[in-house]
Every structure is written in C-alpha cells, then in structure tokens.
Amino acid sequence: MALLEIRDVTRRFGDFTAVNNVNITIEKGEFFTLLGPSGCGKTTLLRMIAGFDLPDSGQILLDGINIVNMPPEKRPIHTVFQSYALFPHMTVAGNIAFPLKMSGKMPDEIRSRVRESLDNVHLSSFANRFPHELSGGQKQRVAFARGLVNRPRLLLLDEPLGALDAKLREEMQIELINLQQEVGVTFVFVTHAQNEALALSHRIAVMNQGNIEQIDEPSKIYGFPRNRFVANFIGKINMMDVQVLEATYSHLKLIVAGLGEVTAPGKEGVKAGDKGIMAIRPEQVQILHHAEEAEVKGHFPGKVHDYLYVGNVTTYIVELANGIRIEALLPNSTAGRAKFFEVGDSVVVTWQHDASTFLND
Amino acid sequence: MAKWLVSGPPILFLLVFFVVPSLIMIVTSFRFPGEFGGLAPLVAPAGEVGGEYGLTLEAYQFFLSNSLYAEIFLKSFGVAAATTLICLIMAYPLALLIASSEKRFRNLMLLLVLLPFASNFLIRIYAWMIILGPESVLSHFLNTILGVFGIAPLTLLFSPFAVLVGMVYVHLPFMVLPLCTNLEKHDLALLDAAQDLGASSWQCFWRITWPLSLPGVFAGSALVFIPVLGMFAVPEMLGGTGDILIGNLIKDQFLGTRDWPFGSTLSIMLTLAVLSIAGLATWFARQSGGMKYAE
C-alpha cells in the first residue's frame, strides 16, 4: 500500500482554484518533490497534507486511512518550514526535544534521542546555543533534526533551502540526500527551483495553476517533458512550431516552417496533420563548421548570433535560415578551447533525431 | 553633539525635578519635624535652649519599632500583587484577541482600551462609588439574591473589595498595552510549527506564546504593581477606615500630621522595597535563562 495517497483533492479560495483535482501516490522511503512556480498550489497542497488547511473535496490517505479531519498535532507528519520556525526561547537541544516531549517520551529517551539527532546533523557542540546564535546553515540543520527526531511517517519540507546562499545550498542538498537515506523517512519537498528538484528527488510532480502537469523521475521530466509548460519550466529548451507530416510507431516526420523536414521519436496518439512543437535541449544541439558538412539531411545552416561564455560551458545562439534562433550548449572540456565560434560565423546545426521531442499543443 | 542637544532637555528635567527632590527627601528623612509641621532648623536658633536640632535616625527607629507600619507595607504589597495578578488574568485574553485581529480593528480596540483616560480620574472613581454604593442597582440586586438565602446584606463600598475593583479598573490598560505590543510581534509560524510537532493548543500556549510574552508580562506587571503601591486616592475614596495603604500613610504625613521626616522615611522605604523587588525579579529572570534569547 502506498504511504500517502492524495485523491481528487481540490481547494478553492473564493473564485480562485489553488489546487485542482490533484491525484498523487507517494511510496514509503521516497524523496518526492512538488515543483512549480509560485502560486501554483504546491504550498497549499503541502499545508493540506500537514493539516493546516482542509481540502474542499477529495481525500488524503496516510497508510490507507483518511486523515483529512485529523488535526495537525495528531498526524505523524512533521514539517520543516521555510523560515525554519525555530523556537527562539529554547536551545538547540530544547528545540529538538520538543516533538519528543509532546509525544510524552521519557526524559532518558529524550536525552539519548536528542544526542543522536545532534550527531546526525553534526551539531553536537551546539546543543546549548540559542537559535539567534546560529548561522543560516546551522539553523537549517536544527530544523531538519527537529522534524526528523520523532521519526514521522512523512517529513514535509517547504522550500527549506530558499534562504541559503548558492554555495551553502549545494552543500545542504547533498547533506539532505544523505540524511534522507540514513533515516529512511519519506520526504515531500516543495520548491520552485528546478535544479534543486532534479538533484534531490526520486520523483517530481510539476504543478501549474493548481494542476499536476507531469509526475515522473527527474530524468524523464527533463528528457521527456509531457507538454510545453514542463518543457519550458525545467531547464532551457529550444522550441519550434511544427506540423506532423507522417506518424509511425517508431518516428515522426515533422515540417518546420521555412526550414524543412525533421525527424523525432514516435509518440503515442500523434497522427499526421497534428500541429505542435518540436523541443530540443541546447546540450543536444551540435554546431559544425559550414565547410565540414555537405547538404545532408537534418543539417540546418545558420549564423552565430551571439554567445555567452560561463566557464564550464558556452551557450551559442545560432540564427537559422528561417529566422528562428536556436541555442546550443558546448562544453569547454578541451584545454585552452574557450571559444569555438565567433559572432557572424556561418555554421551548421544538427542533432540526433531521438534527442528531440514532439509536444502536442 | 546633536545627541546631547536632543537628550539634554529631558536629562535636565529629570535632574531638576527628580534627582534633586529625591536628594532633598533623603536629607529630610534624617531631620527632626518642626513643632508646627515642616522641619526643625538644623542649628538651634540663638537663645533657644533644648529642642531637637541637627540630624537623627529617629524617623527610621520609629518606623522599625512599630509593627503597624510593617503591616500596612505588607498589606499594600498584597493589594498590589493581587491587583497585578487580576489585571494580568483579565488583560491577557484581551491582548491576545487584539493582537490577533486585523490591523484596522486592532487600532480601534486599542483606542477603546485607552478611552477611559479621556475622562478625569477622580470622576471615574466617583462613578465607582455610585456603582458600588448601598443604593446602587448592583447592591440591590446582589442583596435581594442574598436575602433569599437569608444572608445578611452586603456593603460593597468602603471595603477591601471596592479598593481592589478600583485598582484593577484604573490599572488594566497599563497591563493590556505592553502585552499587546509584545503579542502582536509574535511569529505565528512558531505556533504552526509547535502544532505540527504534536503540541495541543494548550501546550502551544504554555510552551510558546506564554514564555515568549514574558517581557510583556514583566513590563505590564511593573506598570501596574508600582503605581498601585503608591496609590492613595482609590483606597481613600472606595476603601473603609481600615483599608489605608502606604500611599495614604505617606500622604497623611505630609498633608495631615505634617511630619515631613517620617513621610520621607516612608517614601524611601517604599522606594527601596520596590527596587529590591525589581532587582530580585530581574535576577530570577536571568537565572531561569528565559530572557537570554531576547538580549
């Protein structure tokens, strides 16, 4: 049985539908992420799982039992808040002991569990500090420890890394993955940062305007976005309007206006005459010098319009014959090869046809 | 420089009207009372034989030798403590309500709390004399009910009860305001977090809201406790002959008996008592570590 099952959950605020008929099943031990832009309903959904908000319709099942009418303090679900919400009048140890005290544990057990928990987050020497004496990363760790110490069935994390600077955030991401593997608690993580979601999760639910757009593993979300929103929201992607010329089980023949024919992997339910989008990630696009290749199928001439050098990679923007600009990401992995092309160079772009995706409109 | 220009006038004001009078009072407490009130001269006038001149500890000896004064002190502290406690119990829910309501209602409610200050203090106490008086609706109502059970009629006015009612009435806003100021700053996410981690609403209050509101509780308690100790108008008007407090005692020394040295002695003892209580409270707060996070 699934650990958490969200069934047909809808939540409206007046005329505004924050969460629209959402269905999610989360398995035990999973690191599940709700990803979406602000206002997409992910936080409302999280608050309903925690018990701070009630769905207008639908059910939330934990171990098969509907918990919609269970108050937050009775749910075996703990939350790590965006602002950490550490109790300022309690020490680090006091904060971590709080959920244990609330569940009526014996003082001896509380002491040993707090010590163990402090060890887990490398804060043993900070037990008697107050929250205002800690750095952002340390506060973050205390919040994790406090949420996990009483072994909840589910830990909800509401953009917990949002307040940290980039370098610290990356460190905490790794720590968070290790922590989750160590304690084996199921995580439901809410974020608007797609790279964070891709790096941390076992599965991601992409949300937009209260709807779930796609639930999949990170590589599937990135590699096979189901629609224009997901493709656009997760990473960078080139998109061209196309029409389907020929559809078979294995491949699609597409017509790009002013460019010609391209091939894409076959997709269920697509038929000749359909209109849609062909999407290709910048790192899948190759750029070749004009001279190297003759008129081969699937090669499109263009001119380098601009480039952006960012150290490990360079992004080139190539303007194709039909005026479409396509982005290509080239790794600077060869020593001394900081730049391959100059602005104005005539080049040819190409890609493996199975790297592109056709998306229905 | 600008700092001194701005803070200079208030410092000067306090120097002239607080520090200097306090010093005068201390000196006064060590002098002899004049024969017809006021103070006896420090040096005997020429030709005068006998009489009491110079400095003396007589007033302090008198204070310490007579247990009546200690009793009045104790009683006054009792009334002050009771008033503070009742004010706290009454003000806390109100302050919680005000602090948790919308901003525009909050300001309106605070205005209502302060509204009694718009009318004269004595008039408000007179109003209580009428409300608690023997001919009042309240007295009639109460005594009719008591009469049914065969209990002798009660006199509300001129009793310790009336004094307490008056004290609480006058000082309640001084408790509400600091509590509101404190409570409205509370981070509501903390209550969510506590609840999320398994705390019932009762536990949320006692483990989060109450400890975090202690600075407000202390401020409000000081603002009620200290003025009540010195208050003489309320016991004089609402209390009976036996209900006098330190405030009345001091007032009588200056305006009735005209024994200035003893009046000064009483004032100084009162100040010392208040200061030691405040000191003890601060020490306890430090010891418990409860205030550490706020420093």
The CATH class label of chain B is Mainly Alpha
Q: Give the helix proportion of chain B (percent range).
A: over 70%
Number of helices of chain A: 8
CATH homologous group name of chain B: MetI-like
Average per-residue pLDDT of chain A, rounded, comes to 90
Q: What's the main sheet of chain B like?
A: none
Shape of chain B: globular
Biggest interface goes to: A-B, 26 and 20 residues
Number of domains of chain A: 2
**What is the CATH architecture annotation of chain B?**
Orthogonal Bundle
Shape field of chain A: globular
Q: How many DSSP E strands of chain B? A: 0
For the termini of chain A, the CA-CA separation is 36 Å
In CATH terms, what is the fold-level topology of the largest domain in chain A?
Answer: Rossmann fold
Show the helix and strand layout.
The complex is a heterodimer of chains A (361) and B (295).
Chain A: E1 4-13, E2 16-26, E3 31-35, H1 42-50, E4 57-62, E5 65-66, E6 77-80, H2 92-102, H3 107-120, H4 136-148, E7 154-158, H5 166-183, E8 186-191, H6 194-200, E9 203-208, E10 211-216, H7 218-223, H8 228-233, E11 238-247, E12 251-256, E13 260-265, E14 275-280, E15 285-289, E16 299-309, E17 313-320, E18 325-331, E19 346-351, E20 357-360
Chain B: H1 2-29, H2 58-65, H3 67-100, H4 103-114, H5 121-132, H6 137-148, H7 160-183, H8 188-196, H9 201-230, H10 233-238, H11 246-256, H12 260-288
Helix pairs in contact in B: 1-12, 2-12, 3-7, 3-9, 7-9, 8-9, 11-12
